[in-house]
Design brief:
Elements (H helix, E strand, L loop, with lengths): L1 E7 L3 H20 L3 E6 L5 E6 L4 H9 L2 H4 L3 E7 L14 H4 L1
Antiparallel strand pairs: 1-3, 1-4, 2-3
Amino acid sequence: MYVAVSTYTAPINEIDYVLPEHIEWLERHYDSGDFLVSGRREPRVGGVIIARPMLRGKLDAILATDPFSYRHLARYDVYEFAATRTAPELNWINETVAG
């Protein structure tokens, strides 16, 4: 699994202008099953996405299609991890239990 942490590199008014496109992009990747959780960081300096296990190259390609990315309004730092402990209702994403 991955945690992708975005950091805005542009003023918030530019972020707000592109936000509807970013939300549509998120919806596409929830519909395709790529993303599990997402939300804005507080204070509002970027966002966080938790993505399912996939090839890292696929995730990099997905993140490159984010309007915030290709418009150079944000950058992503990606951290890979293996879910080894979860709340019972999330056991289906726990790689130790599900694997």
